[in-house]
Amino acid sequence: MRTLSLTASAALAAAAIALTATPGQAAASSGATTAACAAGGTELTVRTVSRPINHDLLTVTNTGRTACNAYAFPYLRFDEDQAVTRAVEDSRPQAVVTLAPGESAYAGIGLSAGDGSAGHGRTARKLEVFLPDADGATDTSATLTLPEGTWIDDSAAVTYWQSNPADALVW
Questions:
Q1: Can you tell me the mean pLDDT for 85-102?
Q2: N or C: which end of the chain has fewer CB within 10 A?
Q3: In whole angstroms, how far apart are CA 70 and each of 87, 108, 120?
């Protein structure tokens, strides 16, 4: 009986919100969604940063005409690696980063252990970037040339997308 009452209350509250919402809010509450950022509607760049050491910064810029969501973290594959780079789970933001046309999101890439303690170090030349949708699926990728002399090892990791570069490089 209590469940039925809570369900009826929730339905009534949703109807009241829909009646008082502005047109944009009504569309959002009726299930309209922002598409995931995809390789075809974005520009991806990677560059080395001076601090922290052993880091690159990956930038995705929305080049489309509508907003897109940069979900979770980019799936990265260095050269011909068999698996994607692990994510830094502690970097998960509180909300999905939504990019209006022309806006950018950032992911920090920790390339190698600063003390040289990780194994399988090597120079990487290219980076394949996959942009996941809300379900984690990807359909296309973009391949970027890494800055010359990019050294990676088994400790390589990528952050979740952040709305500013400083937050992406904290990890």
A1: 97
A2: N
A3: 15, 14, 31
